[in-house]
Design a protein that fits this description.
eight-stranded parallel beta sheet; 43% helix; alpha/beta; TIM Barrel
């Protein structure tokens, strides 16, 4: 089987000590492409370095919705709020200029989107700031003709509304957790869904795969997150478990599923994978 992981974070500290081995593991499972997604200036550059070292890896430049608003979050901290992790402040417009300048080095823009999961983003003012950044990044992706990889945690409907408004031609919903009516909207828009190995233990993703035509499915790991085994570090080789589960749900041969995912990937990223 020719396998594809369209969304991973190999620059994560959990891969610092054994990234060579992780890449070798992926090759042994016959992965033909890993797309490593940045989320801010630091990880965009680290992801680029990794892609330059390992031919198997391509890069997607991203602005995670939380990272893009660190200045506002820092103001919130002064008022007694807390946040999940330390992130350096940066200028969104400057990073967008850098991404445009380096457009030929990436095959997608992502991950980008909206995230209403944290208490810092329960107020409408903060959510509007996220939406403004999201629109800016989507406009850039459209200008440089790149697919977008979308994060939409607890903000699925707002993300869909903006994507429909701006009409980006190639959209991938990463780890989509929205309700069935929203899944149907994405299907009707001809967008893609990337499915992680956690499908093995989460009914939501099993239901999503039942609903979505195989022509609109892709595979990802979100490494080191979303493993098929709770608490275990995920890595690209585990995309085979996503293929197994899609094959089971769709009552198809695993080889046929893997071939279709491969074909879908070449189509959405407009590339030939060797």
């Amino acid at each position: 089987m020719k396998l594809i992981d369209i969304h991973a974070h190999l620059e994560h500290q959990k891969f610092e000590k054994d990234l060579d081995k992780v890449i070798e593991n992926a090759k042994k499972e016959n992965l033909k492409l890993i797309i490593n997604s940045g989320v801010n200036p630091e990880t965009n550059r680290k992801a680029l370095e990794i892609s330059e070292k390992y031919p198997l890896v391509k890069v997607s430049f991203g602005l995670y919705p939380i990272d893009a608003l660190m200045k506002e979050i820092e103001e919130g901290k002064k008022q007694g709020n807390s946040f999940l992790r330390d992130i350096e402040e940066f200028d969104v417009d400057e990073e967008l200029k850098w991404i445009e300048k380096n457009r030929d080095k990436c095959i997608a823009i992502g991950e980008i989107g909206l995230d209403y999961n944290w208490k810092e983003f329960q107020e409408e003012k903060e959510r509007e700031l996220q939406k403004a950044v999201f629109r800016k990044v989507l406009a850039l992706a459209k200008k440089i003709n790149k697919p977008v990889i979308i994060h939409s945690r607890k903000a699925e409907e707002d993300a869909i509304n903006i994507l429909e408004e701006l009409k980006n031609p190639k959209v991938i919903m990463h780890c989509f957790s929205g309700r069935k009516s929203l899944i149907k909207r994405c299907i009707e828009n001809k967008w893609y869904f990337s499915i992680p190995p956690v499908i093995k233990r989460l009914l939501h993703f099993q239901t999503l795969v039942e609903m979505v035509p195989i022509e609109q499915l892709l595979t990802e790991t979100d490494s080191p997150y979303l493993s098929h085994i709770a608490g275990e570090r995920n890595e690209p080789k585990n995309v085979k478990f996503t293929i197994e589960e899609i094959a089971r749900i769709k009552s198809l041969d695993k080889e046929k599923v893997a071939d279709k995912i491969f074909e879908n990937t070449e189509k959405v990223f407009n590339m030939q994978i060797h």
